[in-house]
Amino acid sequence: MLEIVEQAIDTEWVEEMIFQRRLDYGEKSVLERSLDVRRYAVGEMIIGQGDVPQGLFFLKKGIVNMYVQSQSDSVCVGQLEEGAQIGDMAIFDGARASATVVAKQDCELYFMPRHTVIHLLTFKRDLARDIMMKTIRQLSGAIRHMNNFNSQAHQFIQEHVA
Length: 162
Description:
Jelly Rolls
């Protein structure tokens, strides 16, 4: 069951895993007020496919699986580990969640509400730039993985159809 914890955030982890730089006192202060600590047990749904975006998650501990509902069943389309950012696509494009995210292990996440993300994008340009760069790096990795998978699938089909 989702547990929202009254706990200080690990600013060293945030600097290393999210922003990849040292934050100044003001930036740390903003983030300490902006992030909630949330815990999810194995099998618990963090985001449901089709949900309206509530905010941005940063996976501090654990592993999550991402599922997309096909016509007949749910297909696992990816797995994210510590340091991953979750919910960014829906935040930035305004669309509903494209996948269901489920805790594969007990997870601890930092959660930033959507209105706070929008505030950072507007008024805290350095923090916003770093969050967007993390999004771009993560999406680039996903595209590379998808390209590799598509190449292997194409090769498999060519070998078995001919």
